[in-house]
Amino acid sequence: MKIEGLKVYFSTPKGDVRAVDDVDLEVEKGEIIGLVGESGSGKSTLALAVMRLIYPPGRIAGGKILFEGTDILSIPINEYVRQFRWKKIAMVFQASMNSFSPTFKIKDQFFETLKVHGYEGDYWERTKELLSMVNLDPSIADKYPHELSGGQKQRAFIALAIAMKPKLLIADEPTTALDVVTQIQMLRLFKRLRDEEGISVLFITHDIALLSMITDRIYVMYAGKVVEGGNVEDVIKTPAHPYTSALISSIPTLDKTSVKGIPGSLPSLINPPKGCRFEPRCPVKLPVCSEKEPETFRVGDKHYAACWRLAPDRA
Fold this sequence. Notes:
By secondary structure, this protein is an alpha/beta fold. It has helices spanning 43-50, 77-83, 106-116, 123-133, 150-161, 180-197, 208-211, 232-237, 242-249, and strands at residues 2-12, 15-26, 32-36, 58-67, 70-71, 89-92, 168-172, 200-205, 217-222, 225-231, 297-300, 303-305. Strands 6-7-8-3-9-10-12-11 form an eight-stranded mixed beta sheet, sandwiched between helices. A four-stranded antiparallel beta sheet has the order 2-1-4-5, covered by helices on one side. The longest helix is centred in the middle third of the chain and has 18 residues, at 180-197.
């Protein structure tokens, strides 16, 4: 999947909220890509745009989402649903453990999904196979959602998301509200889905430390824009954007005596700053940062950032 210049705006009486504003992003075959940023940075909105789940007052205001050579934003929604949704592109929604209907057993919800999307095999056999793939005993299929733990429900929904063998799985905050042990199990599961099933993953989170354990590349979003991208090792060890550095500094570790937060808050996306959107919170800003939106500069192989401090004439 390749996203080019994606814009998603939401209409309000005071003007458009530019939730996603001219974003480029790519997920190659066999990759686990991380998308990280604070709440409100546009991560989930981007994911919903890929799933064609943006509804008024929201709208896709520009850009392309290319999947297997097709711009999935240019085709009619019914064609997208028939050809792509859940068959080729699936999503584990934020708080997906609460997405199951409480009045139906797990197996009934698997059967319905398989039926709606045209699965031609035996529904029960496929359900057992899917649950086993995520290390769940098939016997839980005969239980209601409230009889499962949070981790079990999360894994069950991941199993449901891969029911039609999609090529891309979008996982939006899949480890939120899970204990540390269950989080590690989730990370191992996504790696196994990539290695054994060939599923590419777009892993969305606000926890950059989590991404260092699972992803191949990372995109950092701030206030609707991607401010840095690159191989996970480059971004984590040598961050090029002040916002990325601030995210990493806010991670508690055993050798830190205190955790340094990021002062301030996200700017208004109705009237964002004229220059760099991080400028009001940036500890190393330059005069140009408040006047002109930063260009994107390459700082290494597949590593780039949108920061005026990286401009060649400052070298």
